[in-house]
């Protein structure tokens, strides 16, 4: 069966996923055609970049300037009223619901009150709808991922300076194996985490696959390691993922830390 494996050694974001899928052969025109169905004036640019000597695709979403805010219901209405195929609408809507529900839990508000600043909302719509288009265009039946490198430090948001991973990102990655390699940057974003939470069926080492296509999607920052998301697309045996969800953490269990020595007062 057709399968996708995501190697998240430098985290995941919406634009990194788009870049990786385009680098693996999904056409820019196909994504742009989907954007035109939304009627929002969104467009996508792709450029070749190198990160630590590795060539990849940088996806840049171009959105019109605006100052309005949109709530989840507004965004779902835009998607539902668009000319997108039904399966793209459904997948995009599920990703957005995950994102809004995570934000609602983190901020302690009803999901209906979660709002997205206009430019950010349009950018997120582009990432989410683009991700749905790419996944469907790949023909994959299943997507599996490595553990996710989330980064460390702090990130500035509309809510102020927050710890990395951002609270919404951490909420979305519940149940997934995550770690930090110590890089002082936000590597996994809420949008990337929402896409992963909806698409990913299992986490763990790369399964047996006959590799057909490989793509690298570049992040914006230049880091001490390649800031890339690697996507591997190929054929996997039907039973390659059998039982992997239950065994997700088995390959990553570390020996417990030794007890700290006690100190006499």
Biggest beta sheet summary: 5 strands, mixed
The total of beta strands comes to 13
Work out the radius of gyration. 19 Å
Order of helices and strands: EHHEEEHHEHEEEEHEHEEE
Give the termini distance in whole angstroms. 63 Å
Q: How many domains make up the coordinates?
A: 1
* Order of adjacent strands in the largest pleated sheet: 11-6-1-13-12
Identify low-pLDDT runs. Answer: 246-265
- Average per-residue pLDDT, rounded, comes to 90
Number of helices: 7
Helix-and-strand structural type: alpha/beta
Strand percentage, roughly?
Answer: 25-35%
Percentage of residues in helical conformation = 25-40%
Outline type: globular
Structural overview:
The structure is a single chain. By secondary structure, this protein is of the alpha/beta class. The protein has one domain (2-241). The chain is built from seven helices and 13 strands. The chain has helices spanning 14-23, 28-38, 72-80, 86-107, 118-138, 167-172, 190-199; strands at residues 2-7, 43-51, 54-62, 69-71, 115-117, 142-145, 148-149, 154-157, 160-163, 178-179, 200-203, 210-218, 228-235. The protein has a five-stranded mixed sheet with strand order 11-6-1-13-12. Helix 4 (86-107) crosses helix 5 (118-138). It is globular and about 45 Å long. The protein starts with a strand and ends in a 30-residue tail after the last strand.
